[in-house]
């Protein structure tokens, strides 16, 4: 539930926020790209600070759960404000976007870093962690599907409530954000109530921050996962951020279908994105049996190899080849779905590796790095998406030039493939195979009993 709640707004931001700012609010794509870069770089460094804080937190609810409890309502409120841009001038709108989006990223970290760290303290068993990671990622994509299915119909339905012939898209987006915020806050409360922290460190001591940071920087597997995670997120975010533009300004036959019950339409964009989330879930379902058979490292590596090849194939599609677009989206997304639960599970393994080497357990700090890698990848990809649109000559709500259309095609295919290729190169050097992890687990189990 915690991942479903986070992913609803994560998908709103990665797939629709740039579009919302350019096509609904009327801000320049390149300026929004710069805004994404500035706010997300700052926020990426908030994640390690949250990890440090949670490692030093000690309450009757545990180290991590209190942040979920007290951060849920601010998360929902600021999420609503992000999609409630007032009728300011261009400068006023940009300032508002900087402030609200910057605050949203900070509160996202304040909730999501402790939430991610929970998996490191719910069970010491590496296989159970992979299963837990699969469950949480399944719900993450389930939350994404909920948003992708509902957002366009909700915007249309709420937009018509103003009584005019043309729906008020600005009002529709604000009301849709309110609906998703209520759902997300409720799920965070359930997450707090229905989880427990069980794994305790070898010794309960107040670690010095300097020692924790030195241990982290000397942790070679951590560096490798950080690089692999950043590259994978670049791949995902560029494709996600470009999809709405691809189907609005390039692909043919994007009308989709109508929902007679609520008299709202579902576009081909929605079908494409929901299909991708469904394929993500299938990838998650398959990752546990496959990784149990060939190992986490090789499962991750081959998933990224196939994603690279399939993304390159996407470039060769014609604008009328809707079936090919949907097929490749399904296959690429299935590969991507297998990767992210593996990353979370591997970070838990890196925590055990660090504890064995140092005798200290910095779960929050290490797991915050996984969130930081997501933010860095998201930061780079988000800025690149806005800048590339500007570079290729994109202008909102007009027929695009051949150069702009070609650029949008590149942003859906060859450019994100660079991210998957980099991720393959990083993970090839990851040293914690299954034999090594079993030895680490046995040694830690002995020490914890002493």
Give short descriptive properties of this protein.
16 helices, 450 residues, Growth Hormone, Chain: A, 1% strand, two-stranded antiparallel sheet
Quick one: CATH superfamily?
Answer: MFS general substrate transporter like domains
Give the oligomer, counting copies of the same chain as homo and different chains as hetero: single chain
CATH topology: Growth Hormone, Chain: A
* CATH class division: Mainly Alpha
Order of strands, widest sheet: 1-2
By DSSP (H or I, 4+ residues per run), the number of helices equals 16
The sequence of SSEs as H and E is HHHHHHHHHEEHHHHHHH
Shape: globular
Second rung of CATH, namely the architecture: Up-down Bundle
Ends: how far apart? 36 Å
Percent strand equals under 5%
Structural domain tally: 1
The averaged pLDDT comes out at: 86
Task: Output the radius of gyration.
Answer: 22 Å
* Strand-pairing-aware structural class: mainly alpha
What's the number of extended β-strand segments? Answer: 2
Q: What are the low-pLDDT stretches, counting only 5+ consecutive residues below 50?
A: none
Largest sheet: 2 strands, antiparallel
């Amino acid at each position: 539930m915690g991942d479903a709640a986070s992913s609803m707004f994560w998908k709103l931001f990665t797939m629709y926020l740039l579009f919302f700012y350019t096509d609904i609010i009327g801000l320049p794509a390149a300026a929004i790209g710069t805004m994404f870069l500035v706010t997300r770089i700052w926020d990426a460094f908030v994640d390690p600070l949250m990890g440090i804080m949670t490692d030093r937190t000690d309450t009757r609810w545990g180290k991590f759960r209190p942040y979920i409890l007290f951060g849920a309502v601010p998360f929902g409120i600021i999420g609503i404000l992000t999609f409630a841009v007032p009728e300011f001038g261009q400068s006023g709108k940009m300032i508002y976007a900087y402030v609200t989006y910057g605050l949203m990223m900070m509160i996202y970290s304040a909730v999501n870093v402790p939430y991610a760290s929970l998996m490191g303290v719910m069970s010491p068993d590496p296989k159970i962690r992979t299963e837990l990671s699969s469950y949480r990622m399944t719900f993450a994509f389930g939350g994404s599907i909920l948003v992708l299915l509902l957002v366009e119909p909700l915007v249309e339905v709420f937009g018509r409530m103003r009584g005019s012939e043309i729906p008020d898209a600005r009002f529709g987006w604000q009301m849709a954000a309110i609906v998703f915020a209520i759902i997300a806050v409720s799920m965070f409360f359930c997450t707090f109530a229905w989880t427990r922290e069980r794994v305790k460190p070898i010794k309960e001591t107040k670690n010095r921050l300097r020692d924790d940071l030195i241990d982290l920087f000397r942790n070679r597997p951590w560096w490798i996962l950080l690089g692999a995670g950043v590259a994978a997120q670049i791949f995902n975010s560029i494709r996600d951020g470009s999809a709405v533009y691809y189907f609005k300004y390039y692909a043919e036959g994007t009308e989709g279908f109508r929902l007679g019950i609520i008299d709202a339409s579902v576009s081909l964009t929605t079908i494409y994105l929901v299909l991708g989330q469904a394929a993500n879930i299938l990838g998650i379902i398959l990752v546990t049996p496959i990784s149990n058979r060939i190992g986490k490292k090789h499962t991750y590596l081959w998933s990224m190899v196939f994603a690279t090849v399939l993304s390159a194939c996407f470039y060769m599609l014609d604008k009328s080849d809707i079936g090919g677009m949907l097929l490749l989206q399904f296959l690429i997304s299935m590969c991507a779905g297998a990767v992210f639960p593996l990353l979370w599970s591997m970070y838990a393994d890196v925590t055990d590796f660090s504890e064995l080497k140092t005798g200290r357990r910095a779960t929050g700090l290490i797991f915050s790095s996984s969130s930081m890698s997501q933010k860095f990848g998201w930061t780079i990809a988000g800025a690149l998406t806005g800048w590339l649109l500007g570079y290729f000559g994109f202008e909102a709500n007009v027929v695009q030039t051949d150069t702009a259309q070609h650029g949008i095609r590149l942003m859906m295919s060859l450019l994100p493939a660079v991210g998957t290729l980099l991720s393959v190169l990083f993970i090839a050097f990851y040293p914690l195979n299954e034999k090594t992890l079993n030895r680490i687990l046995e040694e830690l189990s002995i020490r914890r009993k002493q």
